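Deliverable D2.4 — example input (structure tokens):
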């Protein structure tokens, strides 16, 4: 997207607040949502590709990835929290017309995020050998699970740079480039996996994904640092250390990081709850989580758009417009995810036949996924409301609400129901918790942005 196009988009946002018609605002949400949805789709397709290719190796291979998947989400979520802590500031500075300040924040983000990802990488490498044991996995899964997590940890700096540069481009109004580059990452992942899984099995899937992420992260950095008219680094612009930028990043990103630690910690506890149910249950749970991701993928794309629109609107001092964008985004997200959940309810048996040849895993995965799909409408509300609140710089209270929901509702119910209903009980608990989370975050959205 050219600089003039970005300025025109911002000018339109500022000009249209007083217009009574809502069609323009709907179109703006869609304009930014579609590329973000495509970007999210790419990430989900990579999970499908890995699951299908590894699934052909048998239930043990799938379970070895499934048992450490929550731990990989923990690390990736911390990288995302760091990216958001800087990108929200960039969106608000662009909204205020302060592009030089936006570039200063971007430079601070590059250095900070790289250092942080190196720390995470080191920690992941150190715990990779014992992680499957701590998670209660059977001995037959230890080697593959440890190897997969080790390689994933090595790829964290690339994943962090890809996340940071992509979110910066999105917040500058360029949604198309991250979508295209992430789509190419999907294709690269397929090619690398096709070659490497044949020789290295489960480890090959991790190596393929890491190589794809490294390749695309370099391209994403080039687009942000060199090509972007708003973000490109100008050597003539001095960038001195500014503690206010880091303090604001901490206010925005740290609550998200702690939230993600607590949420993924709860998911890790859930893995411990599921692990005694056996390999079939672990594999079915992993495949069901992967399949369900196609349903919530549009929600995260729309949430990205809500972050940009709310952030830039508030940065320009347009509180009423920020509220409108927030409301429209939630409604669109709810509609799209409900439709996706309905479609998945019908076709999920076919999906699982593609992902794994094991009939028992297919049947159990379809059964538990259909339980959770009833929560998709309120799950959409939770996802998009969180995105809108991030654009407003509000991350602490939403994080607390998420923690209350997942630890107080999901884990408590899971422990109560797993002995009686097995894996189905865990997914019933998940369905109830997602509904509770949606209602809590909708209330916060109305309180924070409904005052305009």
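Example output (designed residues):
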């Amino acid at each position: 997207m050219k600089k003039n196009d970005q300025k025109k988009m911002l000018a339109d946002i500022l000009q249209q607040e007083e217009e009574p018609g809502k069609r323009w605002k709907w179109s703006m949400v869609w304009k930014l949502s579609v590329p973000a949805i495509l970007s999210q789709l790419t990430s989900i397709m990579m999970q499908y590709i890995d699951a299908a290719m590894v699934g052909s190796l048998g239930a043990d291979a799938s379970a070895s990835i499934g048992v450490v998947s929550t731990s990989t989400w923990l690390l990736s979520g911390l990288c995302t929290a760091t990216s958001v802590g800087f990108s929200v500031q960039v969106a608000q500075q662009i909204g205020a017309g302060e592009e030089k300040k936006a570039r200063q924040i971007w430079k601070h983000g590059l250095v900070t995020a790289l250092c942080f990802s190196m720390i995470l990488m080191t920690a992941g490498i150190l715990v990779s050998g014992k992680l499957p044991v701590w998670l209660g996995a059977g001995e037959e899964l230890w080697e593959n699970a440890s190897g997969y997590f080790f390689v994933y940890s090595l790829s964290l700096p690339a994943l962090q740079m890809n996340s940071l540069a992509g979110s910066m481009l999105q917040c500058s109004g360029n949604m198309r480039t991250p979508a295209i580059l992430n789509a190419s990452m999907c294709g690269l992942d397929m090619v690398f996996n096709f070659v490497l899984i044949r020789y290295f099995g489960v480890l090959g899937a991790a190596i393929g994904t890491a190589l794809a992420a490294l390749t695309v992260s370099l391209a994403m950095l080039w687009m942000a640092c060199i090509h972007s008219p708003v973000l490109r680094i100008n050597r003539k612009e001095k960038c001195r250390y500014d503690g206010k930028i880091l303090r604001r990043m901490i206010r925005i990103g740290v609550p998200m990081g702690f939230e993600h630690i607590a949420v993924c910690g709860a998911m890790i506890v859930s893995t411990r709850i599921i692990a005694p149910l056996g390999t079939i249950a672990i594999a079915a749970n992993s495949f069901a989580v992967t399949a369900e991701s196609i349903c919530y993928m549009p929600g995260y794309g729309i949430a990205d758009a809500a972050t940009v629109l709310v952030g830039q609107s508030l940065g320009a001092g347009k509180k009423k417009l920020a509220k409108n964008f927030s409301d429209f985004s939630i409604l669109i997200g709810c509609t799209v995810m409900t439709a996706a959940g309905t479609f998945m309810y019908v076709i999920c048996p076919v999906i699982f036949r593609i992902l794994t040849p094991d009939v028992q895993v297919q049947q159990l995965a379809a059964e538990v996924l259909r339980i959770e799909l009833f929560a998709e409408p309120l799950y959409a509300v939770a996802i998009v409301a969180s995105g809108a609140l991030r654009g407003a710089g509000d991350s602490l209270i939403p994080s607390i609400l998420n923690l209350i929901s997942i630890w107080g509702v999901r884990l408590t119910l899971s422990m109560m129901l797993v002995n009686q209903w097995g894996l189905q009980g865990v997914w019933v608990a998940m369905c109830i918790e997602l509904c509770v989370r949606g209602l809590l975050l909708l209330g916060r959205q109305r309180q924070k942005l409904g005052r305009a």
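Residues 1-8, 16-20 have pLDDT under 50 and may be disordered.
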